[in-house]
């Protein structure tokens, strides 16, 4: 991001005073410079030295910075002496740090099988680098071609270690290469006991030093591949537990190695977006501002909700959506609220601040920062006109002013100004008139109130305009009512018909039932008669 | 000689200008700073980079407000173009396919280069060599191909 505001030259001396001490959530002290927005764990040096504060070097950055230690790696000749040269070569300012920096130095070295001139060197602080014995060059970043050999070496070492654990505590390492590898700047006081180099390297004389003093560096997960993925995942998990961090908070580029759900277990994507929107709502941000400005200001970064969304892209998308909605809402609100006459606030401002002793240019210069003076809906020309007129009127006798005011009030139609109106609800035509502000408010208000009491009550025909609307509404309502009634009548008719059908059906049923019953009523006489009849019939036929 | 237009005689800007006025002021302040910054210890070809970049950002701001967020009116947009708050020629390029992120007009001016080609920042990242960091000579752009 472009920082255009150029800083004054030689400002570094003042920067030293700008440092403040803070305590991190992990309990460590760190130092923050409000001016440069830099923070560092190392204590900034005294101002005499003009310390250019060491930027907070991220662990991943540090390796890029010290990619090669330089050709002057003394090897062989001072094999026994473990000192090497420990002075800092870089000529960095700020040597007189209060805390002595622990120096790093090579502890052990192994030939990389298959890549003969290359040697893998382990340092006291648990880092390692490769060293080319013939070219006399060493690199923190391990070249890709050596990875196979180093992997092999690691496997071999792990095997040896397990064997050693089984049998005795035999020293595993092959040899020592004390020399001077300058310790890189990264001094991360976050001591980390899970650094696995420490337990692997068990050398006799190094163990003599009290192990508590050992400063271990924060392990960098995106170091060149040295162990297999499981190792890295395990290490990350343990570190995350120790610090109580989510893997998302120390983004390491090894996202696939994060434990399942480690990054925001309970936070769904919508929640994250909603949180970020809440933050945007709370921070009172102008939705019209560009996103870059927001990022540059860094107002949001301090809030934890900022981290709800993990990528800058997602944040920008959310911001876009939010600002779009916000702008729409603002436009809608503006359309809803009635047009305000810009003269009203200006005239009331004039009444308070206009002074016959000030010419217009002086007045304008004096109050140019005021909102009413900057309001773009009113031209400067108009402002000047009103100012001059107002000043001119201030010199008039108060009787003239009073008659003018009364004339103004009389001019108002009864619909706008009547007995029910009070000082707070004067029509804008009155408030936006120069005659209204010419008198002192205390006397003027008395006149206005007295005038209002003499007025008639508000006329009834005020709603002439919307009466048509009301009639239409009424008609509509009547129509609806009629339609409803019709519908009800129809329903009633239907019901009656149905009822009749039902009754009819019931009658028919009852009749049939009666008939059936009559048919079932068989008495002796009837049977006899029947039989007789039948017998007669039979006889007739027979 | 152009007519000197005094502030008091000017027409007021269209409605909605007050919303973006502050941000435009920030941009113009930045531009002034960039113009006044000492160029003694800056390589010769890099002297104008901040100017180009701020100009790009401001044009982009206006462009997005009008075309993407539709937050400002046509009148206000025209006013902004007329008063030099945005580069109309650059915005015209942004509307074309393949030029959506164009950094500056100089980078597509093929006639100004030795081999009649566009600037290196127009080359998509996919076609560059790996880890080839690009900073174009004319405006310091690090790549403005649409596919990036």
From TrEMBL, chain A:
Repeat as UniProt keyword: yes
Record Pfam families: FF (PF01846), WW (PF00397)
Ranges annotated as biased composition (Basic and acidic residues): 94-106, 210-219
Record keywords, A-Z: Repeat
Biased composition (Polar residues): 59-68
InterPro entries: FF_domain (IPR002713), FF_domain_sf (IPR036517), TCRG1-like (IPR045148), WW_dom (IPR001202), WW_dom_sf (IPR036020)
Signal peptide: none
Region of interest (Disordered), residue spans: 1-20, 43-111, 163-223
WW domain segment(s): 13-46
Ranges of Acidic residues composition bias in the record: 191-209
Matching CDD domains: WW
Superkingdom per UniProt: Eukaryota
GO cellular component: nucleus
Start-end of Gly residues biased regions: 82-93
Gene Ontology terms, MF aspect: RNA polymerase binding; transcription coregulator activity
PANTHER family: TRANSCRIPTION ELONGATION REGULATOR 1, WW DOMAIN-CONTAINING PROTEIN
Name of the molecule in the record: WW domain-containing protein
Source organism per UniProt: Calycina marina
From TrEMBL, chain B:
GO annotation terms (biological process): mRNA splicing, via spliceosome
PANTHER family: PROTEIN BUD31 HOMOLOG (PTHR19411:SF0), PROTEIN BUD31-RELATED (PTHR19411)
Localization of this protein: Nucleus
Domain of life: Eukaryota
Gene Ontology cellular-component terms listed: spliceosomal complex
Protein family per UniProt: Belongs to the BUD31 (G10) family.
Protein name per its UniProtKB record: Cell cycle control protein cwf14
Keywords on record: Nucleus
Organism encoding this protein: Calycina marina
